Amino acid sequence: MSRLTAGSRESSAPLLAQTPDRGRVIVTAAVAVTIILSVGLLIRNSQFDFAVVQFFNGFHTGAIGAVTNAVYVLFGPVPAILGTAVVTVIVLAATRNLRLASTFAVTIAATWLSLAAAKLIVQRPRPDASLLPFPFDPAQVDASYPSGHTAFVTALVVTIVLATAAGPARRWAVVVGGLLILGVGVSLMIDGVHYPSDVLASMLWGIAVAPFARMLWVSAVLPRFNRVSKGL
After folding, report:
1. For residues 190 and 59, is the Cβ–Cβ distance under 8 A?
2. 19: CB partners within 8 A, 6+ apart
3. pLDDT tens-digit profile of 158-181?
4. Among 47, 102, 129, 219, which is most buried by a count of CB atoms within 10 Å?
5. Is residue 21 part of a domain?
6. Which residues constitute the domain of residue 96?
7. pLDDT for 44-60, tens place per residue?
8. What is the reported pTM?
């Protein structure tokens, strides 16, 4: 493949496109993170939305319970890491573009893993399992806010949307991806492991932070690799 052909293909990859309004992306991410942390610190000792968890947990029986348990496992840390790695390899094999594959992986990983800092800062306890009709087994003892599962699937969906060219395909990615995020969020409440506020905070985090992570990688990190590779 010639350099001209490779460059032409790369320039048509939306995920590698330069962000036209960097200031807006930076401000949006900063405001979202500030709001999420501020709200988290305000509600970390509150169970104001526990009744919603109780309501959804009442459906945790039979096939519904089996499905939501499977969702919790499927989008857990280890499957999420392995799944991202597999998809990244597929992207690399299909495009033969390391810049594209690395941007895909880094956008998801940076968005998802950075959420761990918010969890450590807020330290909100999980919903009280003793007050739920169908407590989750095994009991989850790590911080509840924000939801790591929701953050991962949101990061995945937003990254796929950013990688899709504007038009019908992107609209479908938004609709299908939005339904997937909603489905995971509801599943977590049916399992009784997260408050709705945990889920909403993670959705906002993924939507605001993923574009910032992609922009930072594409505009600040990849050019450094290009300069190093040209000097070798």
Report:
1. yes
2. 25, 211, 214, 215, 218, 219
3. 999 999 998 999 999 999 999 999
4. 102
5. no
6. 50-218
7. 999 999 999 999 999 99
8. 0.90
